[in-house]
């Protein structure tokens, strides 16, 4: 199945480079390009995209607000957002995840890694650049305005579901979760889907935040 990608970045040359990269992949196509967050929201509603590669810093409406509008639109429930940032210390990354982004990458990511990231997020997985993730979540936890982005808490989960949520918080994919817990990848995926349903989470990225906020996973922990 071809992954339909919408590109949102205020730099024309950057968009052109990303477009060439995406079009070079046999399983992807570019269905639109936006230079502002507002354009990204408008195009998302008409381009029938599967995934939006969204820059954080854009004029008119930044990538965070654009992501929030897209995530809140029931007609765009299946659209994933992969946030791009120039620096992995960008303080807005956590807010982007809270707004509904399914993951983030820094702009100096290698081309092959970016294509794989698009495939990962389009398939419903979360993707968080491993280096800065723990530091960013630690900052989120220390924020006085932090609020859980989902409807419920881990207390509504079964013991097995809590085990699965802990592993999701540590960045494990379904196959890795299955290996640790002695489950098939399909069973692990089913558990993740049930957890998302119980917590009212949009995707795995929000489950990661819940795992850290609840103390089930700690920055730098094992």
TrEMBL record:
Keywords: DNA-binding, Phosphoprotein, Transcription, Transcription regulation. The modification 4-aspartylphosphate is found at residue 55. The keyword Transcription regulation applies. SMART domains: HTH_LUXR, REC. Residues 4-122 form the Response regulatory domain. GO terms for molecular function: DNA binding. CDD domains: LuxR_C_like, REC_NarL-like. One of its GO terms (biological process) is phosphorelay signal transduction system. It comes from the Bacteria. SUPFAM superfamilies: C-terminal effector domain of the bipartite response regulators, CheY-like. Residues 150-215 form the HTH luxR-type domain. PANTHER family: TRANSCRIPTIONAL REGULATORY PROTEIN NARL-RELATED, TWO-COMPONENT RESPONSE REGULATOR. This is Response regulator transcription factor. It comes from Streptomyces aquilus.
């Amino acid at each position: 199945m071809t992954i339909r990608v919408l590109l949102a970045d205020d730099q024309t040359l950057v968009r052109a480079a990303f477009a060439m990269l995406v079009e070079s992949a046999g399983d992807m196509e570019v269905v639109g390009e936006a230079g502002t967050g507002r354009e990204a929201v408008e195009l998302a509603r008409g381009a029938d995209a599967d995934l939006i590669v969204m820059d954080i810093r854009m004029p008119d409406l930044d990538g965070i607000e654009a992501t929030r509008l897209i995530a809140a639109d029931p007609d765009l429930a299946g659209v994933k957002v992969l946030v791009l940032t120039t620096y992995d210390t960008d303080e807005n990354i956590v807010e982007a995840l809270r707004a509904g982004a399914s993951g983030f990458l820094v702009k100096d990511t290698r081309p092959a890694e970016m294509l794989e990231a698009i495939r990962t997020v389009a398939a419903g997985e979360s993707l968080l650049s491993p280096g800065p993730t723990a530091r960013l979540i630690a900052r989120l936890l220390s924020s006085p305005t932090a609020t859980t982005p989902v409807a419920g808490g881990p207390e509504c989960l079964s013991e097995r579901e809590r085990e699965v949520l802990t592993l999701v918080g540590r960045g494990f994919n379904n196959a890795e979760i299955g290996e640790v817990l002695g489950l098939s990848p399909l069973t692990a995926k089913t558990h993740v889907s049930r957890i998302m349903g119980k917590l009212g989470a949009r995707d795995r990225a929000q489950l990661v935040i819940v795992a850290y906020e609840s103390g089930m996973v700690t920055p730098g922990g094992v």
